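Entry:
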Amino acid sequence: MPAVRNVLVVGAGAAGAATAILLAEQGVSVELIDIKPDVSALGSGITLQGNALRELRALGVWDRVSALGYEFNQLGIRLPDPNATVVAEISEIRTGGDDLPATMGMYRPDLARILVDRAVEAGAKVRFGTTYTELAQDADGVDVTFADGSSGRYDLVVGADGVRSWTRRQLGIDLETRSTGMGIWRVFAPRPAAVTRTDLVYGGPAFIAGYCPTGEDTLYAYLVEAAQDRSTLSPEESLQVMRGLAEGYHGPWDEIRESLTDPERIHYTWFETHVLDAPWNRGRVVLIGDAVHVCPPTIAQGAAQALEDAAVLSELLLAADRLDQDLWTAFTDRRLPRAREVVAASVQVGQWLLDGEQGDVPGLLAGISSMLRDPA
């Protein structure tokens, strides 16, 4: 018998939905809740590296992901000159194995819907627009009081509720989430025919100008600048700022820029980071995903690391016959060093740009990719 029979998972993002799938399909009673009103409210585009695709295949959703996403195996580097000169074409390491593409771009809400639908198919009970107000645990379980006044008792609560995790705060864990000094403009837009991979431009009006194809007709494009308070801008002003920055880039950017007409598609956020030291649990409540490690998107590993958390946690829970500190130690022994290294590399790439240094980005990425070829 697995270490848990019924589990509450808080947060229906990649980490939470994947945990719900893996436990529910093995007969564990799982409730998956999220404070958001619906899964469709999530984000714009996402880049998935091979190690993320490996976990998605294990979750039984590879066919659906492959049908909606855009696969590619190469990264291009361009100059910020009038010709958008290509100076390097890099074959990426297939971190998920040779039978999977190196990278896939897709529309983030599509991925979110696929994972939640799969959780329901696996037998999880999913509720949106729901949160809890109190956790009270003892040696045998966790009593949870929900915002609607209902309650339940669970063998385990999994806090997969993001960067500003309510569960982490409920546990009294003080974790500093800091800005790395960069901000990113993102837009979901039509894909020019010339865009068949991610191309990055370093320099020009922004630190990084890039794009990632997300489907036959779509991409998401992004511009990375020094972090600024953009909160006072109206949607129309935000659109003009992004169009203005994009004026410094050419090649496919000329078509992308002309398609930037809808202010509601423009989003701006800061790069943030944190890593929680072990342990990631307090008794029968455990934190995973962005609640414990956040990396800037400079090496596109956020979702991958969340999915790996879910895979390792579920594997250990299903193999053990009780919850004890040996299980939690095994969990963080497998996940913390790997996540810490990924976060450090993600931050380092941005710091080199902020400092104006010529860091060895290809060497750093090659080392991380080699590590990620081995399953978590």
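The chain has a mean pLDDT of 96.
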